[in-house]
Write a structure and sequence with these properties.
Elements lengths: L11 E6 L17 H14 L6 E5 L8 H18 L2 E5 L6 H9 L9 E5 L2 E5 L14 H10 L8 E7 L7 H4 L6 H8 L4 E7 L5 E5 L2 E5 L6 E2 L10 E2 L4 E7 L4 E7 L11 H9 L5 H6 L4
Parallel strand pairs: 1-2, 2-3, 5-6, 6-7, 7-9
Antiparallel strand pairs: 1-12, 4-5, 8-9, 10-11, 12-13
Bound molecules: fe (ii) ion (FE2) (2 copies).
């Protein structure tokens, strides 16, 4: 049985994954992470959630080392899922990607220009901007990219804009990662000010994190491949094989909500018994809060 939602459904649902760091031919990341398995498992959880998904976003570090075969593997894994979900696929590169093999294999174009895109998803505009700086691991945008983004944001979209960028424009605790972060948060904040951007979706940090850029919320999806151990002292950078996750981003008319979804399927149990659920179905909708919420003494 399923209770009717008492709140309006989101206008748009985004499954936001990041940092698959795919390695082809069965290779293991750091000698221990099966990146293909991790991505397949993450997508299995997207499908198992039975959420309506309007867009699948993967925000960079798609491949671990720019290997063309890894991008081919990404297509092999992702395309059937996108087909089944009937959703848009939105991809952007990260510092571990290499633009030319990524563009050739994923997008069918032979270029090393940044892959910056605009996708209309039922009135929600999703913009990707490639923050990878060729030859480096930190992030940034060229003058041309800032100008392009400014032009694209000049006119608002029906449901506003979600900006996808690999390098998260927030301050992360790790001194090591601060050497590799986005280089000009102030300039980007100025570009977004007064525009219809409602959320920034990022990765790169390999942790689930949230912050703000001016008035815009920033949602950072934890790594699909591995995670930075936040429990370790901040001066260390310790990888951990868990708890990998993705973010369910629900866009409402008046708010954007992010929910973390662990990739590993842990053991579950029904928090409400079938008898309670069946009883609730018999309660008129207008009485349900009173009946269900009231504490029993
Ligand atoms: Fe990464
Ligand atoms: Fe990265």
């Amino acid at each position: 049985m399923a209770l009717t939602a008492s709140r309006p459904a989101p206008t748009h649902v985004i499954a936001h994954l990041s940092d698959p760091h795919l390695i082809a031919r069965g290779g293991l990341l750091a000698g221990r992470i099966d990146t293909e398995h991790q991505l397949r498992q993450a997508l299995a959880r997207v499908e198992a959630s039975q959420e309506r998904v309007d867009a699948l976003v993967i925000s960079g570090d798609l491949a671990d080392s720019g290997d063309p075969e890894a991008y081919g593997l990404l297509r092999t894994i992702v395309d059937p899922v996108v087909e089944r979900l009937g959703c848009a696929l939105v991809l952007t590169g990260g510092n571990h990607d290499e633009r030319r093999p990524m563009a050739r294999t994923l997008f069918g174009v032979d270029t090393d220009a940044p892959h910056d895109t605009v996708t209309d998803v039922h009135g929600l505009r999703i913009i990707t901007i490639d923050t990878a700086v060729p030859g480096y691991h930190h992030g940034g945008l060229s003058d041309d990219q800032y100008a392009w983004l400014t032009r694209k944001l000049a006119d608002p979209a029906e449901h506003g804009t979600v900006l996808v960028m690999h390098h998260a424009p927030i301050t992360y605790r790790s001194p090591v990662m601060q050497l590799l972060d986005f280089d000009d948060v102030h300039r980007l904040r100025a570009v977004l000010e007064g525009t219809d951007v409602r959320a920034v979706l990022s990765g790169h940090l390999h942790v689930t994190s949230f912050g703000t850029l001016g008035r815009v919320p920033v949602f950072v999806a934890g790594g699909v491949s591995y995670v930075d151990d936040v429990g370790a002292p901040r001066e260390l950078l310790m990888g951990v094989d868990g708890p990998q996750s993705w973010n369910l981003v629900e866009v409402h008319t008046d708010q954007v909500v992010g929910t973390v979804v662990p990739i590993e399927q842990h053991q579950t149990w029904p928090a409400l018994t079938e008898a309670v659920m069946a009883f609730m179905e018999t309660v008129p909708e207008e009485d349900r809060r009173e009946v269900f919420s009231r504490k029993r003494t």
